Amino acid sequence: MGLRVLLVDDHGGFRAVARQLLELGGLEVVGEAAGGREALAKVQALRPELVLLDVLLPDMDGFVVAERIAEGSTRRRYC
Description:
The protein has 79 residues and is of the alpha/beta class. The chain has a single domain, classed as Rossmann fold (3-Layer(aba) Sandwich). It is built from three helices and three strands; from the N terminus they run E-H-E-H-E-H. Helix 1 (12-24) links the parallel strand 1 (4-8) and strand 2 (28-33). Helix 2 runs parallel beside helix 3.
C-alpha cells in the first residue's frame, strides 16, 4: 500500500476528485475532514503519514492547523 493520506478541504467535490486521483496513484486515503478541528481530531485518530491541507477552512486557518499537527508530531516523537 502507498502512503496513508488525510484530505482536508471544506469543498466536498474537491475531496471526492482528489481521493480518486490519489487512490489511482497508489496512495491510501484513510480519511477526510471539512474543517480544522475535525482535521486535528482525525490526525490523532488515524495517524496519517501525509495531510493534504487547504489553507482556507471555515473554522480555523490551515496554517494554524499545520502548526498544531507539527507540534503534536514533535511531542509524540520525543516524549
